[in-house]
């Protein structure tokens, strides 16, 4: 039996932009515990190169940012949510500046860059490493706050719900989470009156992904098992340009390289192919660019295509992309002189746990913010640099709702401790590794950028077989971080495939050869547990 219990007013699972924003907005009044799966800065936020979209340029308007977001989202966005987020952007930027984020300036005003899908320059950034600066500022503020307790190295297993009360109840309240301590291997229980899921996306279900290793869909899987609806999981965004290098995995070449004039070329003859696919050429939305690259790679049997910005001159390139330039030099590529080999890679999970404008899920006591959610902001394709923005706006919205409704949130009843009396230590770690690799490979091949019903059915068949195997394994052996992640990865893969089979059209990021046309009405895919 695990008898280690921790309680606080509010529990936040995840220490990226969404989780820390919620924590900082609640900590003046409440005791807040923030759990991280590894170190406090290892989530996706720190990896965000691009920046944060906000209407700040003279001549730019909220309506224009809303329109760009809706166009990218292919009609699937919730307009009221888009308005709320876009209109909340300038204030979110102002708060980050207060926290000390050193956004780039030019002649005393914020420097704005432009990215694909945006009709204006509206991306505030810190060189080409915005996420790192934002993560650092939020984390420093959280460390300095006496009411915030930061707890690293806790791998969440499952939400503690009414089913886990000492006196069983079917009420569906969420009272916290069971999490494995990486140091001790023991399972601990964290309880709170309100729990905020800020666990990020499910990118690691794919072989090639820009997501950090921890993005295994944990929050989505845990919320689903606890009884929350999940929506639009088929809308998986692939970044068109991830560095092709067999040694270095997941190095992203930011959207802004194309925004600032980079060209996509065929490696053998230097032919610029994007104008053949779209009038906007390299500035077309990501899904168009990713599909075009995928098309050329498959058509010609290539390993990669070239992204070339050398024609802008060495000074320009080094000034705009210092991080990328320096990193590529260590790999023997000088982007001021030569093209960069790139391939598409999974980049962002547009779907997730259904939330309302207050960040509330279907389960009482459970809120969610950021990439783990489907809030209605992104629709069928996320617009560049709207993702960090969503974290700030929804992290704050959830905090505000918890604060306002505090008296209606009951304190947690006694919850059963984690029972591991019937399990033994695993004898076959190789099973986990094998299954992990298998999932990521068939998801990439069958449920990738271009899909078909037959491919999706093949994936569904594999998932069913693996699920039986993993559930059996989970029932018999003591939980380890790898087993927890495998179980969640498989659950996320299942939700993606079920959602993709459900959508009988091609819209935004979901492109299937069997239904290439758009249906007249845009409808969210909603899975009910």
From TrEMBL:
E.C. number: 1.4.3.16
Main location: cytoplasm
Keywords linked to the UniProt accession: FAD, Flavoprotein, Oxidoreductase, Pyridine nucleotide biosynthesis
Subcellular location: Cytoplasm
BP term (GO), one: 'de novo' NAD+ biosynthetic process from L-aspartate
An MF annotation (GO) of this entry: L-aspartate oxidase activity
Associated pathway: Cofactor biosynthesis; NAD(+) biosynthesis; iminoaspartate from L-aspartate (oxidase route): step 1/1
Domain FAD-dependent oxidoreductase 2 FAD-binding as annotated: residue spans: 9-388
Active-site residues from the entry: 286
Residues annotated as signal peptide: none
Cofactor(s) listed: FAD
Reactions performed catalytically: L-aspartate + O2 = iminosuccinate + H2O2
Keyword Oxidoreductase appears in the UniProt entry: yes
Location of the Fumarate reductase/succinate dehydrogenase flavoprotein-like C-terminal domain: 438-517
InterPro entries: FAD-dep_OxRdtase_2_FAD-bd (IPR003953), FAD/NAD-bd_sf (IPR036188), Fum_R/Succ_DH_flav-like_C_sf (IPR037099), Fum_Rdtase/Succ_DH_flav-like_C (IPR015939), NadB (IPR005288), Succ_DH/fumarate_Rdtase_cat_sf (IPR027477)
Domain of life: Bacteria
GO cellular component term of the entry, any: cytoplasm
UniProt family annotation: Belongs to the FAD-dependent oxidoreductase 2 family. NadB subfamily.
Function text: Catalyzes the oxidation of L-aspartate to iminoaspartate.
This protein's name: L-aspartate oxidase
Organism from which the protein derives: Stakelama sediminis
